[in-house]
Design goal:
The protein is of the alpha/beta class. The protein is built from eleven helices and 13 strands. It folds into two domains: 126 residues, NAD(P)-binding Rossmann-like Domain (Rossmann fold); 164 residues, Dihydrodipicolinate Reductase, domain 2. The longest helix has 16 residues. The structure holds NADP nicotinamide-adenine-dinucleotide phosphate (NAP). The site of NADP nicotinamide-adenine-dinucleotide phosphate has 31 residues, from helix 1 and helix 11. NADP nicotinamide-adenine-dinucleotide phosphate binds next to helix 1 and helix 11.
Length: 353
């Protein structure tokens, strides 16, 4: 190892979230990337795939996935792989004392049966589900600090949960009627094009998908149920939009007490998120828009209360590849290792994009 404090490996480094991990960790003051796997691009320089990283990362090349290599060369491993891969890798890495930060859905759900229902597989490391910590620092900061296995939330789930946490915690809303509408950019689908996601099909769309039961519902319900102590069911409808990056959750909710006004809702959010390093509250006639946080780990939250009908719209905007994936994973790594949460995540958002 060089002069850095921790050696990091990325499994699935050629993908979009893997690329963002490489970008963030390339300038992280305390982490050194020692392994970056890609089966397709093994042996090739990182910049052959991630053109934006030319000139960074020295001589690092993609390597074939080898668990023994990860164990020998890493202290922390990020798995930014499709669902079903990390659950096969994590047990051995953990057995050898490595910390694992998984960006896939493999360890997000506590109940193994939910994987059969939502992900069409039966979990082969179910004992690890209870040991995994759901990687949303705004809910589980202290547990993440002590975690060996962190299950980072999905991007739609991160936006949905951040829009709702203070309202649910303070019981400002009717927990039986929560409807979350999410708009999300094309990078959510990963870098392999399909008939629905390659550019001519995806550009300019405003397309609902998995509208009657998106997989991320399971983790949103799990976390809101744990937070409220009451069984919470959520309708969540994602929409593919023409942007490359960004996710915006608009949660339509009904107020428990119709005398609650916007100031009261804002106060609850300001109190709950006031000390959060990566949550900003947007107010004063403006609403959150991913456009103003692209490239950063911020989540912007906001609210609109329509007292006339006892309803509110609660918003959270994120960059799906940052607070929705790699940024949040690095935030979790910082917590796991006792670093400042800001390390590697200090850059302000881009403008214009
Ligand atoms: N994109 C988002 O906005 C987002 C947000 C939150 C969470 N996530 C989750 O993060 C994970 C990665 O997403 P992504 O968008 O980065 O996907 P991606 O762009 O498709 O990249 C997937 C990566 O995994 C590798 N890979 C694929 N199959 C593999 C296997 N069987 N064994 C080992 N490596 C394998 C691929 O490289 P090789 O095939 O060359 O090995 C590639 O590097 C997914 O689980 C996704 O649900 C994505």
């Amino acid at each position: 190892m060089g002069t850095k404090d921790v050696r990091v490996g990325i499994v699935g480094a050629s993908g979009y979230t893997g690329g963002e991990l490489l970008r963030l960790l390339a300038t992280h003051p305390r982490a050194e990337i020692t392994v970056a796997t890609s089966r397709e691009y093994a042996g090739q320089p990182i910049s052959n795939v991630h053109f934006n990283l030319k000139g960074f990362l020295g001589n690092l090349k993609f390597s074939q996935l080898s668990v023994d290599q990860l164990i020998g060369k890493c202290d922390v491993v990020f798995t930014s792989t499709p669902s079903g891969v990390a659950k096969g890798l994590a047990p051995k890495l953990i057995e050898h004392g490595l910390k694992v930060i998984d960006l896939s859905p493999d360890f997000r759900l506590k109940d193994p049966k939910l994987y059969e229902h939502w992900y069409d597989f039966s979990h082969d490391a179910p004992d690890l589900l209870s040991k995994a910590t759901y990687g949303l620092p705004e809910l589980h900061r202290d547990a993440i600090r002590n975690a060996q296995l962190v299950a980072c939330p999905g991007c739609n789930s991160t936006a949905a949960l951040l829009s709702l946490i203070p309202a649910v915690e303070h019981r400002l809303i009717d927990l039986d009627h929560i409807v979350v509408d999410v708009k999300v950019g094309s990078s959510e689908a990963g870098m392999k094009p399909s008939i629905g996601t390659h550019h001519p099909e995806r550009a300019n769309v405003m397309r609902p998908y998995e509208a009657a039961g998106h997989r991320h519902v399971a983790e949103v319900e799990q976390e809101l149920t744990a937070l409220s102590g009451k069984s919470v069911r959520v309708a969540l409808v994602p929409h593919a939009v023409g942007a490359v990056r960004g996710a915006l959750a608009t949660s339509h909710v009904w107020l428990s007490d119709t005398s609650t006004d916007e100031l009261a809702v804002w106060r609850a959010y300001a109190k709950r998120y006031g000390q959060e390093p990566f949550v900003r509250i947007v107010r004063g006639g403006r609403y959150p828009d991913p456009k103003y946080l692209i490239g950063s780990n911020f989540a912007d939250v906001g609210m609109a209360v329509e007292q006339r009908i006892g309803r509110a719209a609660l918003f959270a905007a994120i960059d799906n590849l940052m607070k929705g994936a790699a940024g949040q994973a690095v935030q979790c790594m910082n917590l796991v290792l006792g670093f400042s949460e800001y390390e590697g995540l200090n850059a302000p958002p881009l403008r214009p994009v």
